[in-house]
Specification:
The protein is mostly beta strands and 132 residues long. The protein has one helix spanning 2-20, and strands spanning 28-33, 39-43, 46-50, 55-59, 64-72, 80-85, 89-93, 98-108, 111-120. It starts with a helix and ends in a 12-residue tail after the last strand.
């Protein structure tokens, strides 16, 4: 009887361990281009072209910190360009992380400005506990 209880406990422990470990990392980063021209994102050593109005999703990214750098096409007729926001940056990928980098643009006084915002689904308060 003692042997059966020990074996049952051992089997349940193994079941919980393997059930809790997923082989799929389920991480992703999306680049959405609502800007007037094409953008090009260098992420993890790959150059990704994102045409205006399109979205590119990169899935199953290993956990870690990664940099991304953005270059862009300038529309015909503008006299200059500038960038603002999260056009270039670093992303931190944790278990289940989903990141969106959203690009938009505007033209003012002949200057084309590309802007980017970055958001993610990670808990931003985990290092700052709530105190009552």
């Amino acid at each position: 009887m003692k042997r059966l209880i020990t074996l049952s406990f051992f089997m349940l422990t193994i079941l919980f361990l393997f059930n809790g470990c997923s082989g799929n990392v389920n991480n992703s980063i999306m680049f959405k281009n609502a800007a007037a021209g094409n953008i090009y994102v260098n992420f993890r050593g790959n150059l990704v072209k994102i045409s205006s109005g399109n979205l590119v999703q990169i899935k199953n990214i290993p956990q870690g910190k990664y940099q991304y750098v953005t270059t862009y096409d300038i529309p015909i007729g503008v006299t200059g360009s500038s960038v603002s926001g999260d056009v270039n940056g670093t992303v931190t990928i944790n278990a289940g992380t989903k990141i969106l980098v959203f690009y938009s643009s505007y033209i003012s006084g002949g200057i084309y400005t590309l802007t980017a915002t970055k958001s993610n689904n990670d808990n931003q308060t985990k290092n700052n506990p709530v105190i009552f």
